[in-house]
Amino acid sequence: MTNLFVVHHQIVIEAPASAIWEVLVSPEYMKQWDELPEGYGSDPLELGSIINWEGYSQLTVVEFAPLQRLRLALYVPKWPLPAEHYNIGYTYTLSRQGEHNLLTVEIGDFAAIPQGESYYEESVKFANSSLQKIKQLAEQITR
To answer: Which side of the chain, N or C, has fewer Cβ within a 10 Å radius?
Structure first.
């Protein structure tokens, strides 16, 4: 049986779904919780948007359901298998938990790639820090 290296974190955010979504898809906010390539534009993400770190990695928006779900597929040229052999990406899902909004991030599965455990461990750190920053930004928008 394969060990799944999938990060799964969630956080309650005291802000409207529209503010959380804005922080997720607007480069103005994205660059505050994630790194964007130098010179990346200012247009919000949409289905088919590509974030390209030339020669290093590429994220493509493959699922876009406003105020609900955003999925970015990750492609890294140095990984030996063709991209269709793995399904690695970042999925952000917004849902309601009582009177609050819950943001869930799922990152991975890194099991199919070399050094998958190390990518998994770095993604755990990223999920923790990015969710905290997304929460802070979304809650600031609504003040």
So the answer is: N
